[in-house]
Every structure is written in structure tokens, then in C-alpha cells.
Amino acid sequence: MSLSRISLQEVVQKQYAYKLRAYIQVFMSLVFIQVLGILFSFNGVGMMGTSSNTFDISVHFYSADIVVVFTMLWAFISAILITTQAYRNDDFVFITNRLTSNISNLLFLLTASLVGGLTAMLSSHVMRILMYVLGQTQYLYTPTAASEWIIGFIATILYVLLCSAIGYFFGTLVQLHKIFAVLLPVIFIGLLILGAGTMNGTIINNVIEFIFEEASLTIFIVKTGVLIALLLSGSSLMSNRMEVR
Amino acid sequence: MLSFVPLFIVIIMVFAITSLLINLTKRSNKLNFLSGNRIRWMFVGYISILLICTGLSPLLPKGELTYQKVDVDQLEKDNQELYEAAIQGNIENVDSEYIVKTWNLDYSEKQLNIAVTNDDFLSAPIIVERKTVNDGKIEAAQYKKGSGLNDMVITDLVQPSSLNIDKNTLRLENPEKIILKFSQFQQAFPIKQFTGKGNFSDSNNFYEGTGILYLKIPKDLELNTTSAIDIQYVE
After folding, report:
1. Cα–Cα distances in angstroms (integers) from residue A128 to residues A72, A103, A125, B63, in the given order
2. If you average pLDDT over every residue of chain A, what do you get?
């Protein structure tokens, strides 16, 4: 029996503060991955060429697409890593139960996604300046309105958060039983192949369409929001079934 | 499936780097160069570079490299209007700003051959108006309207064709080919997805307004051409 009673909020706060400091390497890998993405982007993300009697035109496209995709991958793998045994056990330094541990993890993922999403979008400015300094050809720029930036930030953060939620879910599954470490990649590759060649496309195609081709921001927020909530609450429920250590 | 291989390699690389970095620093806290403080400084440094660049980026000169924006449909309509005005004999109503070049040639023979250098295909249709008199003069004007690339007007870049009379032949030559190389900076896909600009696939367009070559010839001059050259007379 303990003399002091601590509220849930206090514990979560403490764990969250600890995790921000202890998982700092997650942010360092973010920096590396984004710099790598910026370097890769110099090759351009696309190219178009056209020719006529009077014109011979080639256009190389540059954008932050690669950085955003890399950041999504980073979120996925980082979320998996913080579910691993070594990280989970860190929590037992504190007064903890599964709930506080999960909540502080989720808060950490949310913070990481916010940081990842914002920096991914901002990296386009770095690319623009580097291209201006190093660029050889004529250079075109479509100005982005402030409202479009806000849309971009929201969407990117949600994409990154969704990836980290998927990662957290998978990570928890693997912690639940090691067989998932083999099963999940197998299922994924199976889904890639299953249905290929049919009119409906593969299941993965449908999932990609469901998320990546949603043209309305509101519906996109609802879709990803529901998915994130399902994945995260699913992982919380699963982790409750785990042994203490 | 083979085209996915480089993609998989990149994905695996990202995975490897991320997990390696995270685990390396986690396990060996004694690794000096990656201590908590250094990481914090690196991270803060990266964020400040991002913020500085965000501040600087709007200051970059756009100047002459910014092209007027236009819709492709508008370009198509412009060209149609130009053509219709010419074929109906209303060329006087077309604004003179669309004239790329004019020529005044003296020619008093009865017959004139028209040929294109190197047997090229002339991109612009030739529209011919007969004057009411035989004044021994050929007036030519090249009109150009509406060429666009990805919603930018590039009409101004179009060079005039060349045109001269050599004995009994009017020689036309396509303008020198313009080689344009652009680097276009696009919005990232999370923005394009919701602003109706299509995501992943680049929504590109190129429209070349052919313009017209308008000739005013003396009343009784007879034009001889090959079938490869598109000549139309004003209605």
C-alpha cells in the first residue's frame, strides 16, 4: 500500500516527458531520413518531354514528395521500435500500468508525427533554395497559398500519424506473439499479389485509393481519424493481454 | 513487378537506417558523438535551417522566370478565334499585338510557287486573301496566339518563320526550334491531393497554338503549291 496517490494525468505527464527525452534518437533518425530524402529529390520526382515543329521542351519536376514518403516510413518503423521489449520495459521505472504506458506512447507518437509532418513540408523550402543556388535550367515555381500550406500540413501530419499508428499496431501484434513477425510481411506480400490481374485490382490498390485519392479534406480527416483511432485502441486492448514484463 | 525493385531497395534502406540509428544510440549511451545533448543540438540546428529557408524562400526572385498563367481551354479558344477571324476576312479586327512579323514583297509575275525549305511540314496554315487590285505587292503577316505549357503562356518565345522570294518561288521556313528546359517545383502530394490538381500523376499539358500566316496577294496572282502545304483562301 502506498501513502501517496497519484492521478493518471500526473503519471502520463511524467512518462511523456521522460519519453520525449529518452527517445530523442527517434528525432535524430528523422533528420537523417529527411536529409536523405532531400538529396534523393535532386534527381527530380518526375519528368516530361514534348516536341513539335517549333518547340523542344523538357520539364523536370521537383517536390517534397520523396521527403514526405520517407517521413511516413520513418514514422512506421519508429512506432514499431518503441513497442519492442527494450522500450516497453523502460516504463516500469515509473509507476505504471498498461494504460498510462499506452497513453504516453500515443502522445509521443502524436508529437513525433507533428514534428515529422511539419518538417517534411518545410523541407520543400530547403530544396527550393538549394535548387535556386545549384540549378542550371530555367526554374518555375507555383506559389503556394497560405491555405494550401495549412491543408498540406494537416494532411501530411495525418499521413505520418496513420503510418505510426499502423506501425504501433503491428509492433504490438508482434509483441503479443512472435509469429506475427513472420506472418505480417507474408500477409502484406500476399495482399500485393492477391487480386492482381483482376478487374478490381489488388486489395492494396483499393486501400491506396481509399486514402490517397480522397479529394475532400474533411472526408480524408474522418477516414484517417477513424483508422488511427481503431488501430491505436486495438493496440491498447491487445497490450492489456500481455504479461507484466 | 521488376520496376518495384529499386523502390523496395530504397524502402529497405530507409528502414535499415532508421532502425540502426535508433537502436545504436539507444544501446550505447557511451557513444560520445551521439550523446543526448549533441542530438538535441543537431535537431535544433536542422529545425533552424528549415525555418531560415522558409523565411528566405519567398524572397527568391521570380522576375522574368514567372510566366503568365492561362487555362489550356482559353488557349484553344484564342487560336480558334484567330483562325475564324482570318478565314472570314476579318483579320483587321485581330489585335496587332499578335503579329509576330510582317513582310512586304514586290512581285509582279503571274504565277508564284510556294515551297517550304527542306520539305518540312509548315506548322501554321496559310490563309490567302486576294486584293481587289493588281498592285504587284505581296503583304505577309505571321500571327501567333496561345501556346502554353502547364498553364504558362510561352507564346512570346515563338520566333518568326522566315519567308523570302527566290525567282518564282516563295520560300517559307519554320522558325528555329526552341529548346526549353524547365525545372518545375511542384507542391507535395498531400497538397495536390486536396486542391484538385491530381496526386502522384503529374497533370501536365502542352498546347501549341499554330498561329497563321496571312498573305495578301494581288488580284490575279496564281499560287502553285504541293499538297503538303495547307493553303486556304478567305471566304
Report:
1. 21, 38, 5, 16
2. 82
The sign of the dihedral angle between the CA atoms of B216, B91, B171, B113 is: negative
CA distance A71 to A65: 10
Which among A32, A48, A70 has the least Cβ separation from residue B21? A32
Write out chain B residues lying below 8 Å of A213, CB-based.
Answer: 193, 199
Q: What whole-number distance in Å separates Cα of residue A67 and Cα of residue A121?
A: 8
User: Domain boundaries in chain A?
Assistant: 8-176+214-240
Indicate the domain borders of chain B: 4-60, 65-233
**Pairs of residues, one from chain A and one from chain B, whose beta carbons lie less than 8 Å apart:** 236
Q: How do residues B72-110 score in pLDDT, each as one tens digit?
A: 777 788 888 888 888 887 777 777 777 888 888 887 778
Q: Which residue has the higher pLDDT, A8 or A103?
A: A103
Backbone angles phi, psi at B167, to 5 degrees: 55, -115
Contact of A61 with chain B, judged by CB distance below 8 Å, is answered with: yes
What mean pLDDT do residues A157-183 have? 89
Distance CA A153, CA B52 (A): 18
Taking an 8 Å cut-off on Cβ atoms, the answer to whether B178 and A21 are in contact is no
How buried is residue A93: exposed, middle or buried, by Cβ count under 10 Å (0-12/13-18/19+)? exposed
- Nearest residue to A12 (alpha-carbon basis) of A113, A88, A94: A94
d(CA A118, CA B133): 73
Return the SS3 of B2: coil
Q: Distances from the Cα of B215 to the Cαs of A139, B117, B127, in angstroms? A: 38, 18, 6
Alpha helices in A141-216 (DSSP H): 146-176, 179-193, 203-212
Q: Please tell me whether the overall predicted TM-score, pTM, comes out greater than 0.80 for this model.
A: no
The single residue listed with the C-alpha cell 533552424 is B48
> Taking a C-beta distance cutoff of 8 angstroms, is the pair B70, B99 a contact?
no
Residue among A52, A56, A141 minimizing CB distance to B185? A141
Q: How far apart are CA B70 and CA B151, in angstroms?
A: 5
Cα gap A56→A50, rounded to integer Å: 6
- A16-20 — which CB contacts under 8 Å span 24+ positions? A16/A104, A16/A107, A16/A108, A18/A90, A18/A93, A18/A94, A19/A104, A19/A105, A19/A107, A19/A108, A20/A108, A20/A111
Instruction: Count Cβ neighbours within 10 Å for each residue of A203-216 and write b for 16 or more, e otherwise.
Output: ebeeeeeeeeebee
